[in-house]
């Protein structure tokens, strides 16, 4: 079985657009778990444009499934994660102003840096996953950092699969096979959706967890909007 960790960044984006507490991020996290999701993912960014650092703290008492915090391990992020003690931290090499994550780690160049960070989180009993492109050298490098898992950066797969190119899965399958051989757990995320998740899962051996946010929230709007429009129409009769 592959666990679904729902990334709730976009709920915070919507909330922040009006300055109040609608939608209520904590209620959404609680409901998503009640509906069966096995994890909650957040990716606080330095400008706090969606998830605020305080959200990460507040979610601690709400998330009873797997709590996954993603981000670039700068000092204030490390402090936040150590304070929240999630189940898992996913290290992502984001530039400070990145619109969204757009690359995996160069685990070869950053081996000693990542080793230090991984060891700090391990001392605090937090599982560590490293965000990587599906490149065999990067998987081997991830193993050397001492990380427990990799998260395969799936944007390229999602894009190509959307264009009908099923072969785009090959590097991901190969990366997952190698990771499994090395004893690294395999997670995946970025632009996974209802359209591509079945094919992706079928081709990735021992896929432990996917984190999905952008498409899942967009799909929730599309699949829910007819119902809500009709509820308004009924009230306006
Ligand atoms: C690491 C990853 O792929 C996701 O966490 C993604 O970056 C979501 O972040 P945004 O919601 O800020 O785009
Ligand atoms: N780690 C990936 C994630 O949390 C969600 O990415 P996306 O579905 O918002 O692209």
From TrEMBL:
InterPro entries reported for this sequence: Aldolase_TIM, PyrdxlP_synth_PdxJ, Pyridoxine-5'_phos_synth
List of catalytic residues: 43 (proton acceptor), 70 (proton acceptor), 190 (proton donor)
UniProt keyword terms in alphabetical order: Cytoplasm, Pyridoxine biosynthesis, Transferase
Main subcellular localisation: cytoplasm
SUPFAM superfamilies documented for this protein: Pyridoxine 5'-phosphate synthase
Family: Belongs to the PNP synthase family.
Assembly and binders: Homooctamer; tetramer of dimers.
Organism: Paenimyroides ceti
Pathway: Cofactor biosynthesis; pyridoxine 5'-phosphate biosynthesis; pyridoxine 5'-phosphate from D-erythrose 4-phosphate: step 5/5
Name of the protein in question: Pyridoxine 5'-phosphate synthase
Site (Transition state stabilizer) location in chain: 151
Transferase listed as a keyword: yes
CDD domains, per the entry: PNPsynthase (cd00003)
């Amino acid at each position: 079985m592959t666990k679904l960790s729902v990334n709730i960044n976009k709920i915070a984006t919507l909330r922040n657009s009006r300055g109040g507490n609608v939608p209520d991020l904590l209620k959404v996290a609680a409901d998503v778990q009640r509906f069966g999701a096995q994890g909650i993912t957040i990716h606080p960014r330095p400008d706090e444009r969606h998830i605020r650092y305080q959200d990460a703290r507040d979610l601690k008492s709400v998330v009873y499934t797997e709590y996954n915090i993603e981000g670039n391990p700068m000092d204030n992020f490390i402090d936040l994660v150590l304070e929240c003690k999630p189940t898992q931290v996913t290290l992502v090499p984001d530039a400070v102003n990145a619109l969204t994550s757009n690359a995996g780690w160069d685990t070869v160049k950053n081996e000693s840096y990542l080793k230090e960070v991984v060891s700090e989180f391990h001392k605090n009993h937090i599982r560590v996953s490293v965000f990587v492109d599906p490149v065999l050298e990067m998987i081997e490098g991830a193993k050397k950092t001492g990380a427990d898992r990799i998260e395969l950066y799936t944007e390229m797969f999602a894009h190509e699969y959307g264009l009908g190119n099923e072969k785009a899965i090959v590097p991901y399958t190969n990366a997952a096979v190698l990771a499994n051989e090395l004893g690294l757990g395999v997670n995946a995320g970025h632009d996974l959706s209802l359209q591509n998740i079945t094919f992706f899962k079928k081709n990735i051996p021992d896929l432990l967890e996917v984190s999905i946010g952008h498409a899942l929230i967009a799909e929730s709007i599309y699949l829910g909007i007819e119902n809500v429009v009709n509820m308004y129409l009924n009230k306006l009769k």
